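Minutes, methods subgroup
Present: GH (chair), OT, SY

1. OT presented the first of two proteins processed in the latest run. Sequence and structure tokens recorded below as shown on screen.
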Amino acid sequence: MSSTSTAVRADCAADRAGTLTFDLTAPAPAPDSVLLLRRRGAAGQKPGGTIRIPLSRPAPGRLRAVLPASAELAEGRWDAYVEKPGDEPAETVVEPGLRDLRALVDRCPDTSAVTVSARVPYPTLDGRLAVRSWVRAPHAEAGTVLAGPAGMTVRGVLYGVEAGEGAAVEARLPGEPDRVHRVPLTAPDPDGPAGSFSFTLPYAAPATGPVPEAQQWQLWLIPATGAPGVRISRILDDVWSRDKSFVYPGHPAAPGVRATPCYTTGNDLCLRLEPVPADH
């Protein structure tokens, strides 16, 4: 497959339902061109699929593609191209223009919805346009995170399942199934939204084991005794990657160990433990 050297620029807008509109400026685009979204594969794997969206012409020199909220877009990162079909399809890189994502801020879907999805257009590090997509069923949306001196307190909203008897949160260390620490959910705020939850995770419990290097403890909400865990994340706004934009203070968890709430690049909430040199 060949590719052209001239890039197309796209302005993006989102509505509260999750529909994305792409307005493109292209030099003499072919009439049968489409907006192509290609999902990135993990290292060593093929991409996970493609989506082709027809282009309309709302104005001279402008092309428009609309990705409805109802369209399926698997979880992952999707790179954008303009594709000219033919015997040898040609792809043109799409660069990010203006992004109007105000409608995505503080979204509050119906808590009874079986599946929660979110899509955020964003600029990649190499200057391309991509879309970050999440699909969660059920979903635990993190809200306020308070990094206290002895533990982290989190408030959030649970979607697609109700918290019942034995509801708790587990801190899990990937690769070490025996290192799990559980705390109960606290009583929901009667004035809070439907599905609201909160918990406090003391730092000391995960830090009782060895911390020879930095550890990323995953946080899972267990809706009831014996129920499968729900990953705690924050996806219902316009931030495509929170790992560097949401930074919390660290506190001592044990002698020589510091604990810090944090987000991953995929917006999953974690507790990071790391050894502290003796002179700190």
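2. SY then presented the second protein from the same run.
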Amino acid sequence: MTTISNQPVEGARVACSEECLLRGGNTNCGGCGMSVVLTMLGRILEQLDQQATLVIPACCGIVTAGGYPTSSYGVPVLGATFGSSPAFASGFAAVRDMNEEAGQVINFAGDGGTYDIGLATLSAAAERNENFLYLCYDNEIYGNTGGQRSSATPVGAKTTTTPFGKTDAKKDIVGIVAAHGVPYAATVSIADPEDFDRKVKTAMRLTGFRFLLIHAPCPTGWKSEPSQTIQLVRDAVNSGLFPLYEVFDGKRYRVNYELDGTDPSAYYDVQRRFTGGEVDLDAVRAEARERYDRLRLLGETWPAREDE
């Protein structure tokens, strides 16, 4: 267990208040989707005047803090082992609630610590309906350890462990979490600030286990240009590759975004991780359409209430 100080990095140029979530002076890569998530989350916490404690496993998010005793985070951070961050967050949330304290406990993890190594403790926390917010920034690889494939890596993507392209489909982590009957699970887009703002605020006003999956491009691992990060996420949403939807209590669905006819090729063509791989775009189009139609049917058959 590692506790990270929340003292500012010496000499850092801070563009927001001293209590902002992600401070200037961090060493994150240009165009990092995770950094965008932290910046947007920090603005919401500041707007709501919400205190927060982050629980972060091994991932780029814990490297972001920098060297002890300074930190690029403006809030207290607990560094957990790779597979146990939901257990750590459960303990933090239990102590907070027993002491009737305010503030959000936020488990912030990448796809490796969510889809794979941390799945057992994630499932346990969801099954117990532990009272904290889980945010997964999904960059679809083990970005902090060299870019290996995870079960979030899409078919055809080349990584250090799938040099000829991944052959297995991406895991449906939102479906898995929602199957536990948790109060709230949703996908979130950093390309749509209003979508991000509303869903984070929805999650924060609820109690129990809440789960947000956020598509977070990694230019280093995706072999894309830093300037393309937001457009990549936008194309993923518009083409159905990353549909935006919500699930309440594991039963009621709401699809948030209509497809606009963007072809998946707009997403694939600008990422060199797919260059020369065996990506069947016709199959990708069909799968994206089928996934979207299925979610629409769920939303029509078991719709979310208007007050949710």
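Chair's summary of item 2: The chain is about 35% helix and 15% strand.
Next meeting: continue with the remaining queue.
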